[in-house]
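Working notes for the structural subgroup meeting. M.R. asked for a predicted model of this chain before we commit to crystallization trials. I am recording the input and output together here so anyone reviewing the notebook later can reproduce the run.

Input as submitted:
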Amino acid sequence: MNAKHRKTLKAIFARPTSPSVVFSDIEALVVALGGSVTERKGSRVKITLQSEEWHCHRPHPGKEAKRYQIEEARELLERVGVKP
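Returned structure, recorded in token form:
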């Protein structure tokens, strides 16, 4: 995990939830942690990390993740034991 991934991880676990986390940075963090990002129909993606799955939509037209998406990413990371 490089410095950018650690920064993204810190932003995901920040309280209150930051609205400025770029969704592609969340995807890159998951891949760096050994997970996978699978393209689905349209803007849908399936993010898998240690057999835990998270189904979501990529934000559009913007690139920043919505607050609820950041909170769902935080829950996924907590379920697999990742801490900031």
